[in-house]
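This part of the workshop introduces the protein records we will be handling. Getting from the letters to the C-alpha cells is the skill we practise here. The record below serves as our worked example for the rest of this section.

…
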Amino acid sequence: MDMRHGVNPLDYRTWDTDRMRAEFLVQGAFGGGLRLTYTHIDRMIVGAAVPGAAPLTLGSGADVGTPHFFDAREAGVANLGAPGTVTVDGTAFRLENRDILYVGRGARSVTFASDTPEAPARFYLNSVPAGAEHPHRLIRRAEAKPLHLGEARNSNIRTLRMYIHPEVAPSCLLLMGITDMVEESVWNTMPPHVHDRRMEAYCYFDLAPEDRVVKLVGTPEHTRSLIVADGDIVLSPAWSIHMGAGTGPYAFVWGMTGENQAYTDVMPVPVAQLR
C-alpha cells in the first residue's frame, strides 16, 4: 500500500509540478492486480483491483492495524470496466459497468473476479473509517439518484448520479457517485466550491489516450493545476477548490468523507475571485 500524508493550505504554494503530482495525484492504480493508496487526508484509501485469470482478495488488515481490512472500515467499489463479481464473505455480487457495491464494516473477506480475463473488470475502491455497520448493498446504475446540472452557456452540463448516499444507500460516512459530462460540455464542478467539512477523491475515466483533464486545485486565491489522464486519481483536501475541464469526453467517480453526509454543505466560489 502506497502512503500519502496530508498538507496544509500554506505549504503547497511553494511546490513545483513534480511535488504537486507526488502529493495529490495517484497514478497506475489500474495497472493490474490490487493497488491501494492510503492518504492521511481523512484516512481515505483509494485504489483499484483489476483481476485477470485469478481472483484477487482483500482481507488482511495489516496495513490499517486491524485483523481484517474492514474491521473498522467501509468501502464503495465501482466497476469501470467489463462485467465482474465481488464476493463478500461468500455472497456474490455481479457488477456491470458503472454499478457500485457498498461494503459495510465487519466484512472478513472481499474477492474480486472478472467474467473474462481478456476483458477484465476494473474495480475502483474508496474506503474510509466507519463507526457503524450498514448492510452490504449493490447499487445498479439505474438505481442511482440523478441530478442534472449546468448550463450550455457555461459549457458545464453534466449528470451527477448519487449511489452511496442517505437518499439511495446508507453508509456511516462515505459518499460516492459518478458524474458524466454531456457532449460538448467540458467544465465540471463549475462554478467551483469548497467544503471545509469533507475531503474528496476523484477518479477520472473514459478518457481517450490522447485526452487530458486540467484539474484545478488549491485555495481560491492560490490555484494550481494537475494534468490528469485516464485512470488517474486526484486527492482533494477539504480546503481545496473543485474545478476542472477536459480536452475531450470524460467521466469521474467522486468519493467523500468527513464530518457529515450533507451533499449541499458547500461554499461556492465565484469564478471572478479565483487567482
The chain has a mean pLDDT of 96. The chain has one domain: 2-273. The CA atoms of residues 129 and 162 lie 20 Å apart.
